[in-house]
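Write out a record, fold above all:
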Amino acid sequence: MRRRLRRSLAAVLALPALTLVSPADAVGFGENVEWVGTFPLTNDSAGARRLGNYFYITTSSVLYIFDITDPVAPELTGFLPFPQSPQFAQEDVDTNGKILLVDDSVIDVSDKENPEILSTHGGGSHTISCVLDCTWAYASNGTIVDLRDPANPRTSGSRWTSAAPVGGAHDVTEVAPGIVMTSTDPLALLDAREDPEHPVLIGRGPNRNRFTHGNLWPRQGQDKFLLVGGESGPSVGCADTSAQFVTLDATNGWPTYDEDGNLTKLGEFTVIDEYRVRAGTYTDGHPPVNQWCTHWFETHSTYEDGGLVAMAWYEHGVRMLDIKADGQIEEVGWYVPAGGMTSGVYWITDRIMYASDYQRSFDILRYTGPLPGD
C-alpha cells in the first residue's frame, strides 16, 4: 500500500512538472545564460548530484529523484520524505547510484521510484562524502564511516582530521579513487587507498586564514589547476576575504617517493588567481546586497587544464568563469534570478545546467556563450 500511495503521489506531483515560458517572460537577468524553466516542487535546497540519467536533490525534509533523459523536461520518478525531525539540508549530496548519503542516513536509491532509508550510523555532519565507491564515507567533522555493509554501517574510532593539522573543515572531495582533498585551512591531500580508517597526508596547500567551502581537482588529479571556492556570511558586494573563487597551481600537487616507496616530499599547491563579485543593480548582473557569498561549482565536460566553470553564488546567481591556460580567471557569463539564492549548479549537457536554489527549487538554464571548438 505504501509503494502504491507513493507512486500515486509522485504521479500527481509530476503533473505540473515544468512550465516553459518565452525568454521575454524570464524570471531574471543574464548574459550568455538564459532561463529555460523552473521545477517548483521544492525549496530549501542546498545542493544536488547528477549521476547518469538521474538527478538527486535534497531539502531538509525530502529527497527527490528525477529522470533527466530529456534535460529540459525532467521527470519526477521518486521521492522520500525524511522521518520525524527535519534533516540538515545536505549540501554535497553524494551517491554511487545504489546508496545515497544524507546526514547520518544511508538511503537505498537502487529503485529510483521507491528510495528507502536503509540504515543510520550516527556519524552525520554538515557534509558527508563517499570514498572508494561509497564503501566508506568521510564527514566534515572528521568522522569516518565504514559502509562496506551499508545495511549495517560502522562509525570508526579514527578520524580523517588526525592525518593533518587543519581547521575549518567543511567538506572533502574524492579527486581520484581513495585520494581525498579536504576543504580546510590549509588544504590537505590524503591517501585512503590502503587504509581508509587511517588516511595518510600526501599533500598540502597554503595556509591562507580563510574559510574553504569546496574544491575540485579535475580529471582525477591530473589537471594542472586545483579549483577552490570560499564562503562568507553577509557582506555588501561579497567583500569578505573568504568570498572568492581561486585557482591554484597543482603541477607539483602529487608527492614524491624514494626508490623504496617512502614519502620524501609532500605535494604542494600555490595560489595563481582570485575572482570576486561586486555590488550592483541586478540588471548589471550584480545585486546590491548579499546574505551569503559563494557556493558549489562544476567544470564543463570539455574542461582540461583550463576551461569553463559554472559557479553558484547565492544572490549573485550563476557565474560562468573561464580558466585560462595560465590559471587566470575571466567571467564570461552570468544569470541572476529574481528572488533567488543559488546554492549549486550542475552540468546536465554541454549547454543545459540545473541550478538548485534555497528559494526557487531548481532552475533549468542554458549556456549560450562560446564553447571550446565553436
